[in-house]
Design brief:
Layout lengths: L3 E5 L3 H18 L10 H4 L4 E7 L2 E10 L5 E9 L8 H15 L4 E7 L3 H6 L3 E2 L4 E3 L2 E9 L28 H12 L5
Parallel strand pairs: 4-5
Antiparallel strand pairs: 1-2, 2-3, 3-4, 5-8, 6-8, 7-8
Length: 191
């Protein structure tokens, strides 16, 4: 059985792994975010960047941050490298995120989940919250997790088929990606 370990990335080295995995998944593989997925939340003091290792290799990341002073948190940028998706790396990262937010006084955690992964999140205790919406040109489902139940989570109870999936192939890029590609072509830049 594989050994999966998650930790909060504090050193420059750990953060470089965190950002590298996100870039590989969201910019290169899924092509849903052009150029970089780094945003203002990555510069916020209280943002927590998490890295997961499976055996001796980095396997995935997630990011979490406080959204209000009433215990609201958001988890996002959950990214698992392809060779680790049919494992429980994603579930371990989510467990680490909700446990961390709960330990910091969080009451609930929200997330926008790619629709093909809604079942994964439901199987590990998340609930749908609202209607599907487009985010970076892909359908996402708002979901919420009650952080008062985080301590009761046991990753050994994660169903063996609880793993993340890629979105279906897209023929229409997100408006931002399309605009970026048009601007790049106008400047003579080729991908």
């Amino acid at each position: 059985m594989s050994r999966i370990v998650c930790w909060n990335a504090r050193s420059a080295h750990d953060k470089s792994w965190h950002f590298s995995i996100r870039h590989r998944v969201f910019v290169e593989e899924q092509q849903i975010i052009p150029l970089t997925d780094i945003d203002e939340w990555d510069r916020e003091q209280g943002t927590v960047h998490v890295v997961a290792c499976r055996d001796s290799g980095v396997a995935g990341t997630v990011r979490l941050y406080r959204t209000d002073d009433d215990g609201g948190w958001k988890g996002d940028r959950l990214a698992v490298l392809p060779q680790h998706r049919a494992t429980t790396v994603g579930a371990r990262l989510v467990h680490h995120a909700v446990s961390t937010a709960a330990s910091l006084g969080g009451r609930s955690m929200g997330a926008l989940v790619q629709v093909q992964n809604v079942r994964f999140f439901e199987r590990i205790g998340w609930k749908r919250c609202g209607q599907e919406l487009a985010y970076f040109g892909l359908p996402h489902q708002p979901m919420v997790f009650d952080l008062s139940t985080a301590a009761a989570l046991d990753v050994r109870q994660v169903p063996p088929d609880a793993y993340l999936e890629l979105p279906a192939n897209r023929y229409d890029p997100s408006p931002l990606l399309a605009a970026t590609e048009l601007a790049a072509e106008g400047m003579g830049i080729r991908h």
